[in-house]
């Protein structure tokens, strides 16, 4: 993380704040409304703290060391083949969460939450790394929002079936490539191979006393995810609305390892960094899936769709009907996607007005709109049915092949 912060400072992308700021509401509120730079607080409850580490495509480009215009294509070409190596054991002291500036973000949140923690877990030789929001219960206990059906949930179910607790470790302030990889739905066990491939180097992993391996980070916690359930939430999540109370697994912490003068990383829910980390990792995945259907040019998860629920896919169709297959490919690649629009190469997918132009002039709703009911969506969608069922919509806003002249906008370069 520190090398990345130095590069962001060198790029003029960091605002350093020396005035004292509270971890309760003040720091999150500043990050929410001041999202054009990384915020580096030098006194957040007396600690160093960064927020908005990745807040737009330029900062993502700096973090991953990939030119901005090549991000989606470069990441889509990854094969999750990076190498890691064991680099020894970490030294821990007893866990004490109150020693960290863990933030309370919104007034009706249930309490303080770790929001940048990458949870590493392993069971029967299968490893996983994913970000989970973690509510603070006391100095040594957290409650994790562990979404049903995802990798961590599956490993916990296996541990419980074997009458065991799931060994876990949590990193705070790892390299952004680690966080980005942990936010990506990659094949089981491949998150750190993806991060190492992005970084272009063999990545050291350090062993915790419970056997879990973690990359370098400012703070490392280790312990066990248990079968015990506790109320978790309410909590403002990606949509900016309060996600409701659910019964979720309790995590019991044993140890904590902090770098001297550690830098804490906080992510304000529904802020720019949250939207980038929830959405950008899915763009290469949708790109890969759409590339199996037709010529795909680019993919964008839009901020208006909370960076997570809406995508625009830009293609050069080979045959009529490709648009509908791209819609289905996008929904398969990102199962929390709710609405997707497929457009041609002449549409600027980063300009909502241009996308709207395509919808306004190239869509006949009786033939170009695909409605899918009874499908699993995101548990974070306030209009979900139950805890995740939903209705999805795809819009094929591409021109009819052979009739492009009727749709292309006039200009003076003809
Ligand atoms: C709860 C989740 C993310 C967060 O807390 O920001 C994951 C949501 O997973 P879905 O599959 O979209 O329900
Ligand atoms: Mn995973």
Automatic annotation (TrEMBL):
Q: Which is a Pfam family this sequence falls into? A: UbiD_C
Q: Name one GO molecular function term.
A: carboxy-lyase activity
Entry keyword set? Decarboxylase, Flavoprotein, FMN, Isoprene biosynthesis, Lyase, Manganese
Q: What is its EC number?
A: 4.1.1.126
Boundaries of each 3-octaprenyl-4-hydroxybenzoate carboxy-lyase-like N-terminal domain copy?
Answer: 6-77
Q: In which pathway does it act?
A: Isoprenoid biosynthesis; isopentenyl diphosphate biosynthesis via mevalonate pathway
General function of this protein: Catalyzes the conversion of trans-anhydromevalonate 5-phosphate (tAHMP) into isopentenyl phosphate. Involved in the archaeal mevalonate (MVA) pathway, which provides fundamental precursors for isoprenoid biosynthesis, such as isopentenyl diphosphate (IPP) and dimethylallyl diphosphate (DMAPP).
Q: Identify this protein by name.
A: Anhydromevalonate phosphate decarboxylase
- Organism the protein comes from: Methanorbis furvi
Taxonomic classification, please?
A: Archaea, Methanobacteriati, Methanobacteriota, Stenosarchaea group, Methanomicrobia
Query: What gene name does this entry carry?
Result: ubiD
